Amino acid sequence: MVKDRPGLDKSVQEAIPSLVVVGETFADQDGFVVANDMLERFPTLPIILYARQDMTGHAKSALKAGMTGYLYPPLKMEDIVNEVQRSLTRARKLGDWLRREVKRTTASLEEKAKISEAERVKLEAIISNIQDGVVVLDDQHNILLANRMIRDIFSLGDNPLLGRALEDVITNADLSALMARTREGALKYHEVNFDDGRVYNAQYTPIPKIGGAITMQDISYLKELDRLKNDFIHTISHDLRSPLTAVFGYMELVERTGPLNENQLEFMRRLQGSVQHMTNLVNDLLDLGRLEAGFDTRRELVQPENVLKYTLDVFDAQIKKKKIKIESNIAGDLKPLRANPIRIRQMLDNLVGNAIKYTPEGGRVRVEMSMQENQIVIRVEDTGPGIPPEEQNRIFEKFYRASNRPQGVEGTGLGLAIVKSVADSHQGRVWVESKVGEGSAFVVFAPPRSSRAADQAMIIFVERDAPALCFFGGAATCD
Ligand code: ADP
Question: What CATH code is assigned to 222-293?
C-alpha cells in the first residue's frame, strides 16, 4: 500500500504490480489522472477505481479511462473478489491478445523482409548480368549502382564507383552531352562513340525520388550495316546520275527532231516529270551520303537571314500561285553561323519549301530567326495539315512520309533527313512542334560562330576555296 505519488512511482518502478486499486482521490490528486498516467506507461495493467460512494456516471468514466473495475462502500468480500477476478481475467486476455498480435506482425514483417531481400538479390543479379550497361545515379549524378557491363564499356576495371560523381569516373564527351540534357526528362536516342569504332545508344530515364538511370546498348553492328547500306545507296545514286542526264538530254532533242502530236507531247511531259523526280531523288541521296560520311567540313560566316532571301525568291512562283501569306521576323541581334552556306541554303529550302508545299491555298507561312540562350533559333511555322504525334519523330527518317499528307503532293521523303543531317553536322538540333489540323513549326537550334580567333583564320583559308589546314582551338582539321 502506498500513500503518495512518489511512493507509487517508486513501487511501480521496482516491480510492475499485478493489480492496482486507486482511490477516487489519491494524495490530493484525482484518481482518474493517476490511473491515466499509469495506463499510459502500462496499457495492460488492471486498475480498479475505489469511489467514496456510488454515483451515476462513475462506472462509465472509469471504463472510459481504461480502468478494469469499480468498487464503492460498503465493501463486501464477495464484491471485492469478483471485481479483482474480473479485472485480472480481462487484463490477462488483453495481454494474450497483445502478444499474439505482436507475434503475428513480427512474423509478417520477417516474411516481407525475407521477400524483399530475396527480390533485391534477384534484381541485383539480373542487373549485373544484363548485356546492356546500366548505371543508376542520384539527383546529384553520383553513382548509386553500376553493373559489370558499364565497367567493360568504359574500361573502368575494378575501380570503386559507388558514391562517386559520374563525371569524375567517366570522361566521355558524348556521355557528358547526354548528362547536360537530362533536365529535358527521358532521352531515348543518344549515341556515345568511342575512338576504337564502338557505338552505343544511351538512354536516360528519370527515376522519381532517386535520380535517374542510364542504359547503354551496343549498336556498333547496326551502325556498320547502316554504313554499308549508305555506301551502296551512294554508289547506285552516283551511277544513276549520268544515265539520267542522258535521258533528260535526249528527251529535249526528241522535240527538235520534228513536230510531235498532242499525245506524244503529253507523254513527253510526263516522262520529263518522272525523270526530274528521279534526278531530285538521286541528288538528295548523294547530298545525304556526303553529309553522313562527314565530308561536309566547309565552314564560313553565314548570316541566315541573307540565305532566307534566296530561298523565298526560289519559291516566289509557288507562293503567288497558292496565295500564301509569308511573314518573317528577324531579330536585330542575330549572330552569324559558322556553317557551310550551301547546306544552310538546303536546310532552309527544305523547311520553307515543305511549309509552302503542305500548306493549303490562302494559308500562312512564318519564318522567325532569333537568339535564345546564345543559340541561333530558326523557326518555320505554317498553317498546313500538321503531323500526327506518333509520326513526328519518324518524319526525320529517310523516305518516311506522314500518313496524313495531302494526296498528290510530290516528294522524295528525304528533305527532313537532309535538314537533320545539316543540323547535326553544325552541332545543332531540329525538332517539330505540330498539331493535326492546325499546322506545324520546325525549329532549328544552332550555335553561333564562336568568337575564337582560330575561326577567323579558318574563314580566310576557306574563302580562297582551296584545301587548307585549319585550326580549331589547337586541333588541326582539313577543309
Ligand atoms: P517530302 O519529300 O515527302 O516532303 P520530307 O522529308 O521533307 O519529305 O518530309 C517528310 C514528311 O514529313 C512529308 O512527307 C510530310 O508527310 C511531313 N511534313 C514535312 N513538312 C511538313 C509540313 N510543313 N507540314 C506537314 N507535314 C510535313
Answer: 1.10.287.130
